Amino acid sequence: MLAEDMEGQLKATLEKTDKKMMAQLKLCDTCLGRLYGKVGRGATNAARGEFVRAVLESERWNVKDCQMCKGLVDDIGKLADLAITTLGDWEHSTFLIGTKFDPELVEAEESLWAELGVEDAESIKAEFNREIGKIVESRTGKTAEFSSPDVVAIIDTLYETADAQVSPIFIYGRYKKLTRGIPQTRWPCNECNGKGCAKCNDTGKMYQTSVEEQTGIPALEISGGKDHRFHGMGREDIDALMLGTGRPFVLEIKEPRKRFFDLGELEQDINRGTNDIEVSGLRISDRDEVIRIKEARPAKKYRVKVHFAAPIPQEKIFEVVGSLGGTRVAQRTPNRVLHRRADRERQREIKAIEADVISPDEADMVITTEAGTYVKEFVHGDGGRTVPSVSGELGVACEVKTLDVLEILDEE
Ligand SMILES: [Zn+2]
Ligand SMILES: [Zn+2]
Protein backbone atom coordinates (compact mmCIF):
# COMPACT_ATOMS: atom_id res chain seq x y z
CA MET A 1 0.00 0.00 0.00
CA LEU A 2 1.21 3.46 -0.85
CA ALA A 3 0.68 6.57 1.21
CA GLU A 4 -2.19 8.66 -0.13
CA ASP A 5 -0.06 11.64 -1.03
CA MET A 6 2.23 9.39 -3.06
CA GLU A 7 -0.75 7.95 -4.91
CA GLY A 8 -1.78 11.49 -5.78
CA GLN A 9 1.69 12.39 -6.98
CA LEU A 10 1.94 9.23 -9.08
CA LYS A 11 -1.49 9.87 -10.67
CA ALA A 12 -0.47 13.40 -11.57
CA THR A 13 2.79 12.15 -13.08
CA LEU A 14 0.93 9.45 -15.08
CA GLU A 15 -1.29 12.10 -16.66
CA LYS A 16 1.74 13.00 -18.77
CA THR A 17 2.38 9.39 -19.80
CA ASP A 18 1.46 7.98 -23.22
CA LYS A 19 -0.87 5.18 -22.07
CA LYS A 20 -0.91 3.40 -25.42
CA MET A 21 2.85 3.15 -25.39
CA MET A 22 2.84 1.97 -21.80
CA ALA A 23 0.37 -0.80 -22.61
CA GLN A 24 2.83 -2.37 -25.03
CA LEU A 25 5.63 -2.68 -22.46
CA LYS A 26 6.33 -6.01 -20.81
CA LEU A 27 7.69 -4.83 -17.49
CA CYS A 28 7.71 -6.50 -14.09
CA ASP A 29 6.27 -4.37 -11.29
CA THR A 30 9.72 -3.40 -10.02
CA CYS A 31 10.94 -2.23 -13.44
CA LEU A 32 7.61 -0.43 -14.05
CA GLY A 33 7.74 1.27 -10.65
CA ARG A 34 11.38 2.25 -11.19
CA LEU A 35 10.26 4.49 -14.07
CA TYR A 36 8.66 6.64 -11.33
CA GLY A 37 11.22 5.78 -8.66
CA LYS A 38 11.85 9.39 -7.68
CA VAL A 39 8.17 10.24 -7.14
CA GLY A 40 7.65 10.40 -3.37
CA ARG A 41 9.61 8.45 -0.80
CA GLY A 42 9.36 5.41 1.41
CA ALA A 43 7.91 2.82 -0.96
CA THR A 44 9.52 0.03 -2.94
CA ASN A 45 9.53 0.29 -6.71
CA ALA A 46 7.47 -2.91 -6.81
CA ALA A 47 4.70 -1.18 -4.82
CA ARG A 48 4.88 1.86 -7.13
CA GLY A 49 4.70 -0.49 -10.14
CA GLU A 50 1.65 -2.30 -8.80
CA PHE A 51 -0.17 1.00 -8.33
CA VAL A 52 0.83 2.31 -11.77
CA ARG A 53 -0.34 -0.91 -13.40
CA ALA A 54 -3.71 -0.63 -11.67
CA VAL A 55 -4.18 2.98 -12.80
CA LEU A 56 -3.17 2.19 -16.39
CA GLU A 57 -5.13 -1.07 -16.33
CA SER A 58 -2.19 -2.76 -18.04
CA GLU A 59 -1.19 -6.40 -17.97
CA ARG A 60 0.97 -7.91 -15.21
CA TRP A 61 4.26 -9.47 -16.26
CA ASN A 62 6.34 -11.91 -14.28
CA VAL A 63 9.90 -10.93 -13.45
CA LYS A 64 11.35 -13.70 -15.62
CA ASP A 65 9.41 -12.38 -18.64
CA CYS A 66 10.31 -8.73 -18.02
CA GLN A 67 11.77 -7.12 -21.15
CA MET A 68 14.00 -4.88 -19.06
CA CYS A 69 15.58 -6.89 -16.24
CA LYS A 70 14.97 -10.33 -17.81
CA GLY A 71 14.56 -11.84 -14.37
CA LEU A 72 17.40 -10.01 -12.61
CA VAL A 73 15.07 -8.48 -10.01
CA ASP A 74 14.47 -11.98 -8.64
CA ASP A 75 18.22 -12.35 -8.09
CA ILE A 76 18.59 -9.54 -5.56
CA GLY A 77 18.63 -11.98 -2.62
CA LYS A 78 21.25 -14.14 -4.31
CA LEU A 79 23.38 -11.06 -5.10
CA ALA A 80 23.10 -10.00 -1.45
CA ASP A 81 24.41 -13.46 -0.43
CA LEU A 82 27.32 -12.93 -2.78
CA ALA A 83 28.01 -9.50 -1.25
CA ILE A 84 27.90 -10.91 2.29
CA THR A 85 30.34 -13.68 1.39
CA THR A 86 32.71 -11.20 -0.27
CA LEU A 87 32.57 -8.69 2.58
CA GLY A 88 33.03 -11.52 5.08
CA ASP A 89 36.63 -12.03 3.99
CA TRP A 90 37.54 -8.59 5.34
CA GLU A 91 37.09 -7.30 8.86
CA HIS A 92 34.92 -4.18 8.73
CA SER A 93 32.26 -2.16 10.51
CA THR A 94 31.05 -0.18 7.50
CA PHE A 95 30.54 -1.21 3.90
CA LEU A 96 29.11 0.00 0.62
CA ILE A 97 27.58 -1.87 -2.31
CA GLY A 98 28.50 -1.09 -5.89
CA THR A 99 27.05 -2.87 -8.93
CA LYS A 100 27.93 -3.41 -12.56
CA PHE A 101 25.32 -4.21 -15.20
CA ASP A 102 25.27 -5.49 -18.72
CA PRO A 103 25.80 -2.29 -20.79
CA GLU A 104 22.89 -3.34 -23.03
CA LEU A 105 20.54 -3.26 -20.05
CA VAL A 106 21.73 0.22 -19.03
CA GLU A 107 21.28 1.42 -22.59
CA ALA A 108 17.80 -0.12 -22.90
CA GLU A 109 16.79 1.57 -19.66
CA GLU A 110 18.00 4.99 -20.77
CA SER A 111 16.37 4.79 -24.18
CA LEU A 112 13.05 3.80 -22.59
CA TRP A 113 13.24 6.90 -20.36
CA ALA A 114 13.77 9.02 -23.47
CA GLU A 115 10.95 7.33 -25.40
CA LEU A 116 8.45 7.77 -22.59
CA GLY A 117 9.73 11.18 -21.59
CA VAL A 118 9.78 10.17 -17.91
CA GLU A 119 11.67 12.53 -15.64
CA ASP A 120 11.49 10.80 -12.27
CA ALA A 121 13.01 7.43 -13.12
CA GLU A 122 15.58 5.74 -10.92
CA SER A 123 18.39 3.68 -12.48
CA ILE A 124 18.53 -0.06 -11.89
CA LYS A 125 22.04 0.47 -10.55
CA ALA A 126 20.87 2.89 -7.83
CA GLU A 127 18.02 0.56 -6.92
CA PHE A 128 20.17 -2.56 -6.65
CA ASN A 129 22.88 -0.75 -4.66
CA ARG A 130 20.27 0.38 -2.15
CA GLU A 131 18.23 -2.82 -1.97
CA ILE A 132 21.24 -5.13 -1.68
CA GLY A 133 22.70 -2.75 0.92
CA LYS A 134 19.50 -2.95 2.99
CA ILE A 135 19.59 -6.76 2.98
CA VAL A 136 23.29 -6.84 3.92
CA GLU A 137 22.70 -4.33 6.74
CA SER A 138 19.85 -6.31 8.26
CA ARG A 139 21.62 -9.65 7.97
CA THR A 140 25.10 -8.65 9.15
CA GLY A 141 24.43 -5.74 11.51
CA LYS A 142 27.10 -3.68 9.71
CA THR A 143 26.42 -0.14 8.53
CA ALA A 144 26.22 1.00 4.93
CA GLU A 145 28.31 4.15 4.65
CA PHE A 146 28.84 6.37 1.63
CA SER A 147 31.68 8.69 2.58
CA SER A 148 34.46 6.32 3.67
CA PRO A 149 33.35 2.71 4.00
CA ASP A 150 35.86 0.13 5.22
CA VAL A 151 35.04 -2.18 2.31
CA VAL A 152 33.14 -1.75 -0.95
CA ALA A 153 31.68 -4.89 -2.54
CA ILE A 154 31.44 -4.48 -6.30
CA ILE A 155 28.95 -6.96 -7.72
CA ASP A 156 28.88 -7.87 -11.36
CA THR A 157 25.21 -8.73 -11.92
CA LEU A 158 25.82 -10.19 -15.38
CA TYR A 159 28.46 -12.74 -14.35
CA GLU A 160 27.38 -12.99 -10.71
CA THR A 161 30.86 -12.33 -9.38
CA ALA A 162 32.01 -9.87 -6.73
CA ASP A 163 35.21 -8.01 -5.85
CA ALA A 164 36.14 -6.18 -2.67
CA GLN A 165 37.76 -2.77 -2.60
CA VAL A 166 39.31 -2.47 0.83
CA SER A 167 40.22 0.89 2.35
CA PRO A 168 43.68 1.16 3.88
CA ILE A 169 44.16 1.67 7.59
CA PHE A 170 46.36 4.46 8.93
CA ILE A 171 48.38 4.21 12.13
CA TYR A 172 49.98 7.26 13.73
CA GLY A 173 53.03 7.05 15.99
CA ARG A 174 56.50 8.47 16.70
CA TYR A 175 59.73 6.66 15.98
CA LYS A 176 63.21 6.89 17.34
CA LYS A 177 66.14 5.66 15.27
CA LEU A 178 68.88 4.31 17.51
CA THR A 179 71.26 2.93 14.88
CA ARG A 180 72.98 4.89 12.09
CA GLY A 181 72.85 3.88 8.46
CA ILE A 182 69.13 3.16 8.15
CA PRO A 183 66.94 5.06 5.72
CA GLN A 184 63.43 6.07 6.72
CA THR A 185 61.71 4.38 3.76
CA ARG A 186 62.36 1.34 1.61
CA TRP A 187 65.13 2.01 -0.85
CA PRO A 188 65.11 -0.18 -3.96
CA CYS A 189 68.46 -0.86 -5.66
CA ASN A 190 69.04 1.86 -8.26
CA GLU A 191 70.73 -0.61 -10.59
CA CYS A 192 67.99 -3.25 -10.88
CA ASN A 193 65.06 -1.30 -9.36
CA GLY A 194 64.23 -4.07 -6.91
CA LYS A 195 64.56 -7.12 -9.13
CA GLY A 196 67.87 -8.24 -7.66
CA CYS A 197 71.32 -7.95 -9.25
CA ALA A 198 75.03 -8.35 -8.53
CA LYS A 199 75.32 -4.85 -7.10
CA CYS A 200 72.69 -5.45 -4.40
CA ASN A 201 73.54 -9.12 -3.76
CA ASP A 202 70.17 -10.09 -5.21
CA THR A 203 68.33 -8.31 -2.41
CA GLY A 204 66.88 -5.66 -4.70
CA LYS A 205 67.68 -3.09 -2.01
CA MET A 206 70.27 -0.38 -1.44
CA TYR A 207 69.84 -0.76 2.33
CA GLN A 208 68.89 -4.01 3.99
CA THR A 209 66.29 -2.45 6.22
CA SER A 210 64.47 0.82 6.89
CA VAL A 211 62.24 2.39 9.51
CA GLU A 212 59.37 1.67 7.11
CA GLU A 213 60.11 -2.06 6.94
CA GLN A 214 60.76 -2.39 10.67
CA THR A 215 57.33 -0.92 11.40
CA GLY A 216 55.50 -2.10 8.28
CA ILE A 217 56.36 -5.81 8.35
CA PRO A 218 55.01 -6.43 11.89
CA ALA A 219 51.95 -4.35 10.94
CA LEU A 220 51.35 -6.55 7.89
CA GLU A 221 51.64 -9.65 10.05
CA ILE A 222 49.09 -8.49 12.60
CA SER A 223 46.65 -7.04 10.04
CA GLY A 224 47.08 -9.51 7.19
CA GLY A 225 47.61 -6.49 4.95
CA LYS A 226 49.11 -6.55 1.48
CA ASP A 227 51.59 -3.67 1.50
CA HIS A 228 52.72 -0.69 3.55
CA ARG A 229 53.55 2.95 2.92
CA PHE A 230 55.37 5.17 5.34
CA HIS A 231 54.59 8.88 5.72
CA GLY A 232 57.08 10.69 7.96
CA MET A 233 57.03 14.29 9.18
CA GLY A 234 60.19 15.00 7.22
CA ARG A 235 63.18 12.66 7.44
CA GLU A 236 66.64 12.61 8.95
CA ASP A 237 69.81 11.67 7.09
CA ILE A 238 70.48 7.94 6.76
CA ASP A 239 73.50 8.24 9.07
CA ALA A 240 71.72 10.45 11.64
CA LEU A 241 70.08 9.15 14.80
CA MET A 242 66.53 10.21 15.66
CA LEU A 243 66.31 10.67 19.44
CA GLY A 244 64.17 12.47 22.04
CA THR A 245 60.47 11.68 21.78
CA GLY A 246 60.89 10.60 18.17
CA ARG A 247 59.54 11.72 14.82
CA PRO A 248 55.80 11.63 13.97
CA PHE A 249 54.76 9.27 11.21
CA VAL A 250 51.68 7.65 9.74
CA LEU A 251 51.95 4.07 8.55
CA GLU A 252 49.47 3.13 5.84
CA ILE A 253 48.47 -0.54 5.53
CA LYS A 254 46.87 -1.52 2.24
CA GLU A 255 44.12 -4.14 2.00
CA PRO A 256 44.11 -5.23 5.64
CA ARG A 257 42.23 -8.45 6.44
CA LYS A 258 41.94 -7.21 10.03
CA ARG A 259 41.47 -3.56 10.98
CA PHE A 260 40.52 -3.79 14.65
CA PHE A 261 43.57 -5.17 16.40
CA ASP A 262 45.46 -4.19 19.54
CA LEU A 263 47.86 -1.36 18.71
CA GLY A 264 49.67 -1.89 22.00
CA GLU A 265 50.46 -5.39 20.83
CA LEU A 266 51.73 -4.08 17.50
CA GLU A 267 53.90 -1.54 19.34
CA GLN A 268 55.43 -4.38 21.36
CA ASP A 269 55.93 -6.53 18.25
CA ILE A 270 57.80 -3.71 16.52
CA ASN A 271 59.96 -2.82 19.51
CA ARG A 272 60.78 -6.44 20.35
CA GLY A 273 61.81 -7.15 16.77
CA THR A 274 64.67 -4.66 16.57
CA ASN A 275 67.24 -2.61 18.41
CA ASP A 276 67.48 -0.15 15.53
CA ILE A 277 64.24 1.70 16.10
CA GLU A 278 61.60 2.21 18.76
CA VAL A 279 58.02 3.37 18.27
CA SER A 280 55.57 4.86 20.76
CA GLY A 281 52.06 6.27 20.99
CA LEU A 282 50.51 4.19 18.20
CA ARG A 283 46.90 5.13 17.50
CA ILE A 284 44.43 4.92 14.62
CA SER A 285 44.77 7.77 12.16
CA ASP A 286 43.40 8.78 8.76
CA ARG A 287 44.34 10.21 5.37
CA ASP A 288 43.85 13.80 6.59
CA GLU A 289 46.58 13.30 9.15
CA VAL A 290 48.94 12.11 6.41
CA ILE A 291 48.41 15.48 4.73
CA ARG A 292 48.90 17.35 8.02
CA ILE A 293 52.14 15.44 8.64
CA LYS A 294 53.45 16.03 5.14
CA GLU A 295 52.72 19.76 5.37
CA ALA A 296 54.09 20.32 8.90
CA ARG A 297 57.14 22.57 9.17
CA PRO A 298 58.35 21.95 12.73
CA ALA A 299 61.50 23.46 14.24
CA LYS A 300 64.12 20.86 15.13
CA LYS A 301 66.83 20.44 17.71
CA TYR A 302 70.06 18.79 16.58
CA ARG A 303 73.21 17.54 18.20
CA VAL A 304 76.28 18.02 16.01
CA LYS A 305 79.72 16.65 16.73
CA VAL A 306 82.15 19.17 15.20
CA HIS A 307 85.85 18.74 14.53
CA PHE A 308 87.98 21.89 14.12
CA ALA A 309 90.90 21.89 11.66
CA ALA A 310 93.00 23.72 14.28
CA PRO A 311 92.77 23.97 18.09
CA ILE A 312 90.57 26.81 19.33
CA PRO A 313 90.49 28.40 22.79
CA GLN A 314 87.38 27.48 24.71
CA GLU A 315 86.42 31.15 25.26
CA LYS A 316 86.46 31.78 21.50
CA ILE A 317 84.07 28.85 20.93
CA PHE A 318 81.65 30.14 23.58
CA GLU A 319 81.89 33.67 22.22
CA VAL A 320 81.01 32.57 18.68
CA VAL A 321 78.23 30.27 19.83
CA GLY A 322 76.84 33.11 21.95
CA SER A 323 76.81 35.46 18.97
CA LEU A 324 75.04 33.01 16.64
CA GLY A 325 72.02 32.21 18.84
CA GLY A 326 68.89 33.96 17.57
CA THR A 327 70.47 35.11 14.31
CA ARG A 328 69.18 34.64 10.79
CA VAL A 329 71.41 32.92 8.30
CA ALA A 330 71.40 33.27 4.53
CA GLN A 331 71.81 29.90 2.84
CA ARG A 332 72.32 29.37 -0.84
CA THR A 333 71.35 25.91 -2.09
CA PRO A 334 74.08 23.59 -0.75
CA ASN A 335 76.76 22.34 -3.08
CA ARG A 336 75.80 18.73 -2.38
CA VAL A 337 72.24 19.17 -3.68
CA LEU A 338 72.93 21.72 -6.45
CA HIS A 339 72.78 18.99 -9.12
CA ARG A 340 69.09 18.38 -8.38
CA ARG A 341 67.83 21.69 -6.97
CA ALA A 342 67.78 25.25 -8.27
CA ASP A 343 70.38 27.62 -6.85
CA ARG A 344 68.57 30.12 -4.68
CA GLU A 345 69.05 31.82 -1.34
CA ARG A 346 66.83 31.35 1.71
CA GLN A 347 66.85 32.94 5.15
CA ARG A 348 66.50 30.71 8.21
CA GLU A 349 66.54 31.35 11.93
CA ILE A 350 69.02 29.75 14.32
CA LYS A 351 66.74 29.70 17.35
CA ALA A 352 69.35 28.53 19.86
CA ILE A 353 72.87 27.13 19.93
CA GLU A 354 74.97 25.76 22.75
CA ALA A 355 78.39 24.12 22.81
CA ASP A 356 79.92 21.44 24.99
CA VAL A 357 83.68 21.63 24.41
CA ILE A 358 85.23 18.16 24.39
CA SER A 359 88.80 19.14 23.47
CA PRO A 360 90.54 22.09 21.77
CA ASP A 361 89.62 20.62 18.37
CA GLU A 362 86.23 19.07 19.09
CA ALA A 363 82.86 20.19 20.44
CA ASP A 364 79.30 18.89 20.65
CA MET A 365 76.84 21.57 19.62
CA VAL A 366 73.11 21.55 20.28
CA ILE A 367 71.41 23.66 17.63
CA THR A 368 67.69 24.48 17.38
CA THR A 369 66.64 25.75 13.96
CA GLU A 370 63.64 26.77 11.96
CA ALA A 371 62.28 24.14 9.54
CA GLY A 372 64.26 23.90 6.32
CA THR A 373 67.64 24.95 7.71
CA TYR A 374 70.67 23.14 6.27
CA VAL A 375 72.38 22.41 9.59
CA LYS A 376 75.60 20.84 8.29
CA GLU A 377 76.10 23.83 6.01
CA PHE A 378 75.44 26.22 8.90
CA VAL A 379 78.32 24.51 10.72
CA HIS A 380 80.93 24.15 7.96
CA GLY A 381 79.85 27.18 5.90
CA ASP A 382 79.62 25.35 2.55
CA GLY A 383 82.50 27.31 1.01
CA GLY A 384 80.88 30.65 1.86
CA ARG A 385 77.42 29.71 0.58
CA THR A 386 75.98 29.91 4.14
CA VAL A 387 76.57 33.19 6.02
CA PRO A 388 77.10 33.47 8.90
CA SER A 389 78.35 30.01 9.86
CA VAL A 390 80.14 28.43 12.80
CA SER A 391 83.23 27.88 10.65
CA GLY A 392 83.17 31.42 9.25
CA GLU A 393 82.90 33.03 12.69
CA LEU A 394 85.60 30.80 14.20
CA GLY A 395 87.84 31.38 11.22
CA VAL A 396 88.74 27.72 10.95
CA ALA A 397 87.50 24.81 8.85
CA CYS A 398 84.86 22.70 10.63
CA GLU A 399 83.97 19.11 9.89
CA VAL A 400 80.62 17.62 10.93
CA LYS A 401 81.44 14.19 12.37
CA THR A 402 77.88 13.20 13.30
CA LEU A 403 74.52 14.89 13.23
CA ASP A 404 71.58 13.59 15.24
CA VAL A 405 68.07 14.88 15.67
CA LEU A 406 67.33 15.41 19.36
CA GLU A 407 63.77 16.63 19.00
CA ILE A 408 61.08 17.39 16.44
CA LEU A 409 59.34 20.42 17.94
CA ASP A 410 55.95 19.81 16.32
CA GLU A 411 53.80 20.51 19.38
CA GLU A 412 54.89 24.11 19.88
ZN1 LIG B 1 12.00 -6.25 -14.51
ZN1 LIG C 1 70.15 -4.56 -7.62
Strand order of the largest sheet: 13-10-11-12-9-14
- Helix-strand sequence: HHHHHEHHEEEEHEEHEHEHEEEHEHE
Strand content: 25-35%
Bound molecules: zinc ion
Question: Could you report the average pLDDT, rounded to the nearest whole number?
Answer: 95
Task: Assign a percent range to the helix content.
Answer: 25-40%
Shape: elongated
Number-wise, the strands total 14
The count of helical stretches stands at 13
Mind telling me the CATH class of the largest domain? Answer: Alpha Beta
Taking the sheet with the most strands, its summary is: 6 strands, antiparallel
- So, CATH architecture of the largest domain? 2-Layer Sandwich
Q: Tell me the CATH superfamily of the largest domain.
A: THUMP superfamily
Q: Into how many domains do the coordinates divide?
A: 3
Structure notes:
By secondary structure, this protein is an alpha+beta fold. The chain has 3 domains: 4-166, THUMP superfamily (THUMP fold); 169-295, Alpha-Beta Plaits, CATH 3.30.70.2510; 299-409, Alpha-Beta Plaits (2-Layer Sandwich), CATH 3.30.70. It contains 13 helices and 14 strands. It has helices at residues 4-14, 19-23, 29-34, 45-56, 76-88, 103-116, 124-140, 211-223, 263-272, 287-295, 314-324, 375-380, 390-394; strands at 94-100, 143-144, 151-156, 161-166, 169-177, 227-232, 242-254, 277-285, 299-308, 328-332, 345-359, 362-369, 386-387, 398-409. The strands form 3 sheets. It has a 6-stranded antiparallel sheet. A 4-stranded mixed sheet has the order 2-1-3-4. Strand 3 (151-156) and strand 4 (161-166) form a beta hairpin. It is elongated and about 105 Å long. The model has no long low-confidence stretch (mean pLDDT 95). Residues 27-28, 30-31, 63, 66, 68-69, 73 line the site of one zinc ion. One zinc ion binds next to helix 3.
